[in-house]
Amino acid sequence: MLGTELPNMFTRKCSRIWHSSRHRPLLRSSFYGLVLLIALYTLYHLVPRSTTDFFSDFLNAEADASPEIWNERAEQVKQAFVHAYHGYERYASPNDELKPISRGKINNFNGWGVTVFDSLDTIYLLGLNDEFERALTVVKQTNFSISVGNDGFAPYFETVIRYLGGLLSAYALSKDHMLLERAEDLAVVLDPIFDTPSGMPFYSVNPTTGEHRGPEIGILAEISSLQMEYTYLAKVTGRKQYFQRADAVSKTLARAKLRDTGGMFPIQWNLTSGEPIGYRLSVGAQADSAHEYLLKQYLLTAKTDKTSLEMYLRATTHIITNLMYISPTRHLAYVTDSATSTFWELGEPTHIFEHLSCFLPGMLALGAHTLPLDNLDEAGINFRNLGDQATFGYAAKGFKTLRNYNLTEIHLWAAESLAQTCWLTYADQPSGLGPDEIMMKTIHHDSPPENYLWIKAIEKWRKSGARGPVPGVADRRPVVYSERERLSGKGVGRDYVLRKPGYLLRPETLESFYILWRVTGDSKWRTRAWAIFEAIERETKTPSGYASLRSVEMSPAPKEDSMPSYFLAETLKYLYLMLSGKDPLPLNEWVFNTEAHPFPVFEWSEEEKKAFEMSNT
Ligand SMILES: *[C@@H]1O[C@H](CO)[C@@H](O)[C@H](O)[C@H]1NC(C)=O
Ligand SMILES: *[C@@H]1O[C@H](CO)[C@@H](O)[C@H](O)[C@H]1NC(C)=O
Ligand SMILES: *[C@@H]1O[C@H](CO)[C@@H](O)[C@H](O)[C@H]1NC(C)=O
User: Fold this and answer.
1) Do 298 and 182 lie in a common domain?
2) Which cysteine pairs are covalently linked by disulfides here (predicted)?
3) Are 460 and 454 in contact (CB under 8 A)?
């Protein structure tokens, strides 16, 4: 009976409850059965449906699943990958992506077969030997000198993270030298893109002619998400020029004056002067991976690139103290953008929370796991000096606040509370899948935004004796609106409205669950990942693949004729790694690029480090 109000993935436990009295003596069981009935009846009518306990019962029962069950689930993810990849091979290869409803194809990323390149390492990890052989044939035959679409211009950022990342990662795993040669072929045709005094790349390049295109103003994520790929390419080829490409970008970032943005990088940069422009801050679209690569570059270089670590600590301090808020109803933590141009005080938040930003909990958890955040001296860093008043003025406040905390702890709290919200945006929907963008409601109209910063809630909680759960970290019950509630706008209990209701098969939430599961060992993340996979199977599967959704607010959900390559590269990879009992890529030995392509942490000698001139001052 309750099943109609809850997404399908939560209904199984209901039937289990009804069967649980079977083994008791008849009389007792019918007595308890009656009591249970009355209790449920009362619960159903008295308590708002969104607060019943079926949901947590479901999770608890699932957490007890045996290793065999988890292996079986991992196997189902593998079959999902095979279904998607075979559909692509049959109807779309060697074009870029499959159109999973019309069984068509699309060339949206240079026409080199982006799905093949992006899938290489997942295919290898899954042990799909025939598919790997066939993929190698495509890789061998691709002519990187001709780009299809966009007037023959290749968009640099996507080409690096999907193609170059895929090739390098598959090389790292398989040691097939052809993959490395092709990676270098690609880097060579892309190289004219760096024709700027700042060393930051333009938007796109024509690999046939070497011409480049794009405005003088670059977008943060697009101009600084290449450090991992280029540093690894330099390491395995022994060619320093690739490292210099990455290093030029890092040095430009490190030189930037960030007084007005509290040490965080704004979205826009002048590619000529290498200076940041304006005050727009975000961890979502246009910004995300630039922050991620600060941490990951440090980890990939076996904790050598200290400048990147310093930039990471500044950025995360600002994110935690200025961009994280807490919602009024369910006290959900979220991270948002600041759109204002007056950052002298606090930036005016937009309260938009993007699915893309759901990578952030994973990044923070990875940092808390791998860095000595509670003892930065060990890494040669003095946190006090990172955000001094003279350099940062008003924004130094955030650094001062965090000084009083165990940084490991607060980064983990931030990670867990954001991941809770990412999860609820899925669990709140009839489809069981999360929307691409929401806007949090604020009932604090009269109160300045500073009053409901997440860090303020933490401060208050601590001052009152740190009793009860950390703000934002506790499990909250999903609020699923019925169709009637949705259409009438009369549903209550949600903290947000949907701005972009589609689900684009994106990986970020699962990526963060994966890292949180590894870092905290809490199986609820894995259980939730499984619930999401079940929803993917139910709502997005087509006879030829998997389709993005136009809206998560209905089940069955209306589909879109698109299967992005990152679904195979990231979404299914993180799911598989999380559900299978094995850990072929331990987080302190492998670092995932922003497209989920793993690179091994460097093992290198002092001389090698010197040859790279890694800044270590
Ligand atoms: C790749 O395309 C370029 C430009 O059309 C052409 O000059 C070159 O010969 C092609 N390479 C191969 C191996 O076919
Ligand atoms: C970028 O910086 C250069 C050098 O300082 C300057 O000449 C140019 O006008 C700037 N471009 C924009 C769009 O601000
Ligand atoms: C900081 O917090 C972490 C995580 O709770 C804990 O393991 C560590 O011991 C703490 N460090 C200090 C110096 O108290």
Assistant:
1) no
2) 358-422
3) no
Per-residue pLDDT of 113-144, as tens digits, reads 999 999 999 999 999 999 999 999 999 999 99
Same structural domain for residues 387 and 454? yes
Closest Cα to atom 6 of ligand 1 = 145
Same domain, 238 and 294: no
Same domain membership, residue 272 and residue 251: no
Length of the chain: 617
412 CA: nearest ligand 3 atom: 4
The preferred substitution site among 369, 378, 402, 408 for testing ligand 3, maximizing ligand atoms within 8 Å of CB, is 408
Q: Strands 437-440 and 352-354: what pairing?
A: antiparallel
How much of the chain, in percent, has pLDDT values that exceed 90?
A: 79
Number of Cβ within a 10 Å radius of residue 410 = 24
Strand partners, 453: 325
- Per the annotation, does 594 bind a ligand? yes
Given its phi and psi angles, is residue 278 left (phi above 0), alpha (psi -120 to 50 degrees) or beta? left
* 481 and 343 together in one domain: yes
pLDDT digits (tens, 9 = 90+) for 150-202: 899 999 999 999 999 999 999 999 999 999 999 999 999 999 999 999 999 99
Atom 3 (ligand 1): residue with closest C-alpha? 145
pLDDT digits (tens, 9 = 90+) for 425-442: 999 999 999 999 999 988
Q: How many Cβ atoms sit within 10 Å of the Cβ of residue 45?
A: 8
Q: What total of structural domains would you count in the chain?
A: 2
CA 406–ligand 3 middle distance (angstroms): 6
In terms of residue numbers, what domain contains 190? 108-255
Cα torsion 384, 385, 390, 395: sign: negative
Q: Is 0.70 topped by the overall pTM? A: yes
CB 413 within 8 A of CB 328: no
Q: Whose C-alpha lies nearest to ligand 1, atom 2?
A: 145
340 lines ligand 3 (CB under 6 A): no
Q: Ligand 3 within 6 A of 409 CB? A: yes
User: Could you tell me the distance, in angstroms and rounded to a whole number, from the CA of residue 126 to the centre of ligand 3?
Assistant: 37
Tell me the mean pLDDT in the region 534-546.
98
374 lines ligand 3 (CB under 6 A): yes
Q: Is 520 in the pocket of ligand 3 (CB under 6 A)?
A: no
* 116: CATH: 1.50.10.10
> What is the C-alpha separation between 222 and 208, in angstroms, rounded?
21
Residues in contact with ligand 2 (CB, 6 Å cut-off): 216-217, 270, 272-273
Q: Could you say which DSSP state residue 558 is in?
A: P
Q: Which ligand is nearest to the CA of 277?
A: 2
pLDDT tops 50 at residue 18? no
